[in-house]
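We emphasize that the prediction below concerns an isolated chain of 299 residues; any contacts that depend on oligomerization or on bound cofactors are therefore not represented. The input was used exactly as deposited, without trimming of termini.
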Amino acid sequence: MGIGIGLGCAEFPFSGAAAYWRWIDMCEAGGVDSIWQTDRIVGRQPFLESMTTMAALAGRTRRMRFGMNVVSLTFRDPVLLAKQCATIDMLSDGRLLPAFGIGSPLAPEWQALGMDTKTRGRKTDECLDIIRRLWREESVDFSGAFYQLKGVTITPKPVQPDLPMWIGGSTDAAIRRTARIGTSWQAGAREAGRSIDEDHYGAGFAFHFGSRDAPGVGKAMDAYAKRTGRDAGHAFAIGDADTILARIAEYVDAGVSKFILRPLGGDDDALLVQTRQLIEQVLPRAEARWPKHRKTSDL
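Result of the prediction step, given as a token string:
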């Protein structure tokens, strides 16, 4: 089973647009599989808006695929989001990897926007149904608890005939949601009478060539532990190329084949150096160890 190693951003870690595009250009030229942007709408930390970023990446790149990790559907209008995804997929000639989720109950949007977390699961289910149908059907009627549609059509449709729907989440409900609608995640779908291809399971972690004492690394690990209540040791790979490859291998042994890795560094130059080291020291060894079997669609 071949693997795909992509890179991602949570908080926007660069000083500005110029540094960000240098990073993207390096990833495009260096064989990185895909770019992923964490979705956050409000907050004091700097986050790029996901759909705008996907559109910009469609114009800047020619090879890499790109996705949002993950769009919280309850904060978005499903018809507009379906249209945005279809447009970006068309303009990028089929390189969009849309990923959707329910949204963390700890996210600042709930209180800031006056929204009820108790209905987020049901709203997400309705949004997923609407988006999936708009991508595939000529005209959509929908009657739900939260959304009402009559004869809605979007054109053009996505270039990818079966545009993948990556579903994020760690609850039982998220697993059931993936089993019913999603095409990619970290769980099977037998109870729903469906199956997910063996190369459609993903995982992610932060990495750093060096020690946890480097600028920005220890702080990131401490923040993760505080936010999640979990040991940051397994969510971060800190060391050398062997350390990062070993962490990838652990996931591959468990059936994971798609990765979103986040470089850690104290400034623009450090992030670019980290990315260059991954491209030069890890990607070739990963490709040699887990060669890809080319298909019409890699995901």
